Amino acid sequence: MKPPPFDYKDPRSLDEAVAVLADCADDGKVLAGGQSLVPLLNFRLAQPAVLVDVNRVAELAYLRRREGKLQIGALCRQARLEQSPVAQESCGLLGDALKLVAHQQIRNRGTVGGSAAHADPAAELPVAFACLDARFKARSKRGERVIDARDFFVTHLTTSLEPDELLTEVEVPELPANHGHAFEEYSRRHGDFALGGAAVLVMRNGDGACREARIALLGAADTPLRAREAEQALAGQKIDEDSAREAARVATRDIEPTGDIHGSSSYRKRLIEAMVRRAIVKAAA
After folding, report:
1. What's the predicted TM-score (pTM) here?
2. Is there a single domain that holds both residue 169 and residue 66?
3. What is the domain-level CATH number for residue 12?
4. How many domains does the chain fold into?
5. Greatest pairwise CA separation for the chain in angstroms
6. Has residue 1 got a pLDDT over 80?
7. Are strands 196-204 and 28-31 parallel, antiparallel or unpaired?
8. Is 249 in contact with 274 (CB distance < 8 Å)?
9. Interatomic CA distance for residues 71 and 146, integer angstroms
10. Could you tell me the residue range of the domain that residue 255 belongs to?
């Protein structure tokens, strides 16, 4: 299939890209890695009047560690983040998540900002960012603003970005040394979208008990979903199979995943519960 007709813009700087988006009003769409947008164009599920290709905005392709934060430019390729020693040292959960993203060829081209802005609740990076309490920087001609993860993801394939805003950076706070992390998911075949999954962080006290836990669910709702009651249930506990099983039960008690030909809602709910339990045990270990 072929995409619908569109005007093509090829800005070379951030200021130029922002100016182009401002001129597009509601009719523009940003092209970064294109791994999600191009199929949508070809199936005519997206029909923008203007395609704004930001691949030559080199100033957004950075990856750096500054002042206790991992700063990821929106055009940083997923493969670069996956393989970065700096990212692995400061935030290993991102590496866990990226290994599960599609195939290597996709990660070579796909961008971190593109995945976040696409906001698929069955995608790994949005779930990881929700678990990590990431912050998203957006730029328009009106200025820059910072959006917390809980406010960034609005619903399925929708973020709080305005039509004239460009996502420029994802900022991830560094985690304490005594933490564990895990990302667990299940898909029918390697590279397929997962039927369910979970990202988990566990911060421990000196005696080994859980000081703080973070749990984000994949495929459980129309956005990445933080299981805050389950997080509270783990606080202060020694994590073992029993406490992990109870926390997983609490985490999935009220979810109603969408069913399809690959699995009913009740099947997906049980699957996500199993993924949460496994991720908690692995993170605690």
Report:
1. 0.96
2. yes
3. 3.30.43.10
4. 3
5. 62
6. no
7. unpaired
8. no
9. 13
10. 179-284
